[in-house]
Design goal:
Number of helices of chain A: 23
Oligomer: homodimer
Number of strands of chain A: 17
Strand order of the largest sheet of chain A: 2-1-6-3-4-5
CATH topology of the largest domain in chain A: Aldehyde Ferredoxin Oxidoreductase Protein, subunit A, domain 2
CATH architecture of the largest domain in chain A: Orthogonal Bundle
Strand content of chain A: 5-15%
Helix content of chain A: 25-40%
Distance between the termini of chain A: 35 Å
Largest interface: A-B, 36 and 36 residues
Structural class of chain A: alpha+beta
Shape of chain A: globular
Radius of gyration of chain A: 22 Å
CATH superfamily of the largest domain in chain A: Aldehyde Ferredoxin Oxidoreductase Protein, subunit A, domain 2
Chain lengths: 576, 576
């Protein structure tokens, strides 16, 4: 039987609880958002005693279903002030699921100014004071804990940024290679830091396999599902070959690659940082072009990027990071970006928020556009050492904008806008504006249909159909984020008729239930409405569902497009 | 005939316009708020091209009416995101009025990265590039301009903080002694800095007297009015003797003197910083205990505070500043606070926001509580030199709180809460929560009736009557802020029956109209509703009319009072 693990940091106690009936059918984002909405006062200070940090594996996590190893992390976000769910790969989700941990809820704040660790076994949580690893980077933490326990130990940890409660701080999750995946967005690391938890270790010794109600049905569905993933040109070919960074040249061609802090839509040096160049570089240096963030991933969009001497630099090296430091900061050297990516993993900051932030920092004159070495220096010496400038930068794009009086600050609900210019790819602008999480491309990835011709085609430069596209994708994504599935299963799900039914069959076979496609859609709608309800109680209105002023006034080359949706058109998103 | 002076900084042009009919009967705050509400898009970036900076003298400014020399400055605030009116003494309001400048409206942003100055004569505005005085403090600017023009020149200027667009930056106004009064709150200096205007000079050569429709009636009313001011124990005796700092001991006694970043309600060393101690120190050192911020002030609450050697340190040395650096930062040395006050005037930051900010900075560990020399150092070396730490501090209390992850951050709508603990003086809490300007004691100064027994008595520790008290005072204050009158005329207006009719008679005599008391109340209501309408369009809701969470949860000694108004009780404020 699955359980809820609950930790109270105020009195340093923990408990193992029955799963309430209304949480039983939920997993991942559906569960974290439900728990946050039920238990967190929406107006509370995100770093105060009344916020809660919740981890929940997806409904299919821990099963043999391909690409089901995602963990959701939820709380009220210190970056956006909204509800937040941020999901990550790594080894934790599958460990949680096998140990029967339906969710881990961390509440309260310690009375004393000390740091702690949590140690999870199938029987419960041990809270211990921690001093040795305070101030250490995430790689050192993982290394130390693997040597204290063993290679199988699961780890979720915060770096110096999280300890310092910076709003861009992430939570790092150990991946199968002892490297790092991240609950990146929304400052979840700051919430963990506020609760004075440096790391969480997960010892799954004695955990059995996840029970599956109808193993034969499951196996059949899982096979159909896996085939759909491998058959799709994006999931089965583009992503494994070039990683997500395949998008640099595609977005540049579309004129939607935000460049020089969202001043232009194309980057002259795009070839230097493209997925194609990256692929060749990896091969040449003996890295890996394919790599999974969790066991059972068959898309393998990650990679291992080595330096000139063949030494490991980074993995999980994503398009959004490369775009952000590349085109948006005009840095032309992929090696500099890779090194920065590694440092961001180590100090524990969201690489999207941080990359968007550096664009604003460059506009503010903190460092020149194109200064890759400067970025590396500021990450290490300022953010990593938690200097005053480091705290400014670690506060994210909006924070740097406010601190320096910059007016071109690409954020929605104070979260940095990633990688796709909403003026020239209008569907994603609707997602940025309306997402319950602040600007988030993964919340409703219209790039699929606007740019990649997946799930049909909606002209990125026209307004027609964008609201409906974003709405359908946001609803579907909320549901997918609850299954433990990687977001990239959406590509085959949109194009290959057997894919989605197979996914639903797997859920039904796992739990012995009979969900329909409509049920899944309803679940997605319910999640979005629950999240929005929290935000409304926290003080958000449709006025917050807007892009920054400059998108309306400053046309972006090459299409000279502006953001031209009326308020009413945007607000129609919520008509469901 | 009065005129509107309009300056467009985008194309560096200016014009002199007729006064539109619906602005004719307005002055001061009524006029700045009306212009901002009519002409500024509420959702615009406060530092972008679509914000406007508006100056307007009061209806009675420039007349011989006692205490009528206040100027209103309005814009969308970069600190709060709300509409803002901040009024100040000094010589400008009377000069504007005599020159027939009903309002000065500054719009647009220069295309080039250069600073400018505006020179106002009765015939219009000259815009000139400015380089020599960039980076200079306000005292040096005034000195330079007096030597360039003459002693009579009016000056409104920003210091390094305004140039850097810090959200706590004020606009300094030359007073009759060539010292400084400030449009302090809400970051108006940042708006002026964003428009790249270092200073505005006012040459009133050739300006006649303000025309008065019925001089005899005016003279009679003015005499009654002045007598009421002098007869009142607070306006006629307390304030001239001890200045506003008379309040330290009074609030300490009442348990409403926020101490150690709003942790306690009383300060052990209150005697060291009290008005009584200050008075004796001033006398001993040959300073002045009485001093007016503008010609015609008969309350004379200001003073000249000298150092041990009898050398000028500061004037306009207010209770809120002394409380903020004193009790709230636990600094026990009045000389340190006076020196800090002088530096704040020079670099151009709001001394309330900055004092509240230092309380949060001390809680964040940036410097220890009680460290007066540290405050002086940070003001000079960090804010004054616009370092990264200086930018953090110059962003105000909320900004420091966000940057360091502090949860006890006394702000409403991101503006620092001044000098009166809302848990133990509950009426002022209603003003802080509901003011259209963010936390602002002057918006509806319930201290009068909660603590000073002016206008009756409403028990500060009980909820009864507080909403009505704050509502009545906010309505009255909005009207008073439109007359050019100093806020302290409210004391006699509340207690002496002849005072308010005399004020209305003066307005009627000035313009040859027949306003009634009800008209004035209606004006006050209209102003508040206009301002609130702007804020609602900007995205604010009743959820923003709340005090920070810690006031609800942390009782404050000695009364162990908490903030215990329900949302509905607060929202009832707007029932008019």
């Amino acid at each position: 039987m699955d359980k809820i693990f609950r930790v109270n940091m105020t009195d340093l106690t923990s408990s193992v609880e029955e799963v309430p009936a209304n949480w039983a059918g939920l997993g991942g984002r559906a569960l974290t958002s439900t728990i946050v909405a039920e238990e967190v006062v929406p107006t509370c200070h995100p770093l105060g005693p009344n916020n809660k940090l919740v981890f929940a594996p997806g409904l299919l996590s821990g099963t043999p279903a391909a690409n089901s190893g995602r963990m959701s992390c939820g709380a009220k976000s210190p970056l956006t002030g909204t509800i937040k769910e941020s999901n990550a790969g790594g080894t934790s989700a599958q460990q949680f699921a096998k140990m029967g941990i339906k969710a881990l809820i961390i509440e309260g704040l310690p009375k004393e100014d000390k740091f702690y660790s949590l140690h999870l076994t199938k029987d419960g949580v041990t809270i211990a004071e921690e001093s040795e690893l305070i101030g250490q980077g995430n790689f050192a933490v993982i290394e130390a804990l693997e040597s204290k326990f063993d290679k199988k130990i699961g780890v979720m940890t915060i770096g110096p940024a999280g300890e310092a409660k910076m709003a861009s701080a992430n939570i790092s999750v150990k991946d199968p290679d002892s490297k790092i995946r991240s609950h990146g967005r929304g400052g979840m690391g700051a919430v963990m830091g506020s609760k004075k938890i440096k790391y969480i270790t997960i010892d799954s010794t004695g955990a059995g396999a996840v029970t599956i109600a109808d193993p034969d049905k499951f196996k059949t569905a899982a096979r159909v599902f896996a085939k759909a993933l491998l058959d799709h040109p994006v999931a089965g070919e583009g992503l494994p070959t070039y990683g997500t960074n395949v998008l640099v040249n595609i977005l540049n061609e579309a004129g939607g690659l935000p460049t020089r802090n969202f001043t232009y839509g194309q980057f002259e040096a795009h070839d230097n940082i493209s997925g194609e160049t990256m692929h060749d570089t990896i091969v040449e240096r003996g890295g890996k072009t394919k790599h999974g963030c969790h066991a059972g991933c068959i898309i393998q969009c990650s990679q291992v990027y080595n330096d000139k001497d063949g030494k490991y630099v980074t993995s999980g090296f994503e398009y959004e990071t490369i775009w952000g430091l590349g085109a948006n900061c005009c840095i032309e050297t992929l090696d500099d970006i890779a090194e920065a990516d590694n440092i961001m993993d180590d100090i524990g900051v969201d690489s999207i928020e941080t990359a968007v932030m550096f664009g604003v920092a460059m506009e503010a004159g903190i460092l020149p556009f194109g200064d890759g070495k400067g970025v590396i220096r500021l990450l290490k010496e300022e953010i990593g050492n938690v200097t005053p400038l480091g705290r400014i930068l670690g506060g994210g794009a909006g924070h740097v904008g406010r601190t320096y009086g910059v007016t071109r600050v690409p954020v929605v609900k104070n979260q940095g806008i990633p990688a796709y210019d909403p003026r020239s790819v209008k569907g994603i602008g609707i997602t940025y504006a309306t997402s319950t999480m602040g600007a988030d491309h993964t919340a409703g990835y219209t790039i699929a249909t606007n740019i990649l011709n997946v799930g049909g085609f909606v002209d990125p430069l026209k307004k027609d159909g964008q609201v409906e596209l974003s709405r359908n994708l946001q609803i579907a994504t909320a549901a997918v984020d609850s299954t433990g599935m990687c977001i990239f299963i959406a590509f085959p799900a949109l194009d290959i008729p057997e894919c989605l039914p197979a996914l639903i069959d797997m859920i039904n076979a796992r739990f012995g239930i009979a969900l329909t496609g409509d049920d899944v859609t309803e679940l997605g709608k319910t999640i979005l409405k629950t999240e929005r309800g929290f935000n409304i109680e926290a003080g958000f209105t449709n006025k917050d569902d807007r892009l920054p002023e400059f998108f309306n006034t400053d046309p972006v080359a090459p299409h000279n497009a502006v953001w031209d949706f009326s308020d009413d058109e945007i607000d129609a998103f919520w008509n469901f």
